[in-house]
Amino acid sequence: MSMSLGSWLRLACAVWVGVMAGFFFAFSFVVMPGLGAMEPLAALASMQAVNLAVRNAVFALGFFGALILCTAAALHALLRRDAPACWLALSAALIYLIGAFGVTSLFNVPLNGEIAPLDPARPENAGVMVSYIAEWTLWNHVRTLASLAAFVLLLLSLWIGRSKN
pTM of the full predicted structure? Predict the structure, then answer.
């Protein structure tokens, strides 16, 4: 059985959204709790280093690749409104675009920007880091749940669309 362009697109989108869901999941349940267990100023220095390290081509491929594939899947779904699999793909794309990319742009990145200039040697920055961890992690949970929901919807779209498109 050959796969349609829409199926290939939904499969690629599911892979990249799944990669990002795993990335966000690891931060929510491993990295941020680990930083929360550290002395706040050491956690500040560590998170500043992480925020610099994440600016690389491999991460950009995953993060922006998922964004581009979700946009393409949404556009394809709008063109194929008759197929149930396309409605699932459209829903998945919108959930990812708003819940992962939008939340990242509106909340996580600005929070990262707020701690970027802070000096980890200054004791008054400890309280900022404690607040940062709580707020950043809350928004990261949203990204995690959105990515996982989009991933599941994309898998469902592949499953119900396996013989229809």
Answer: 0.94
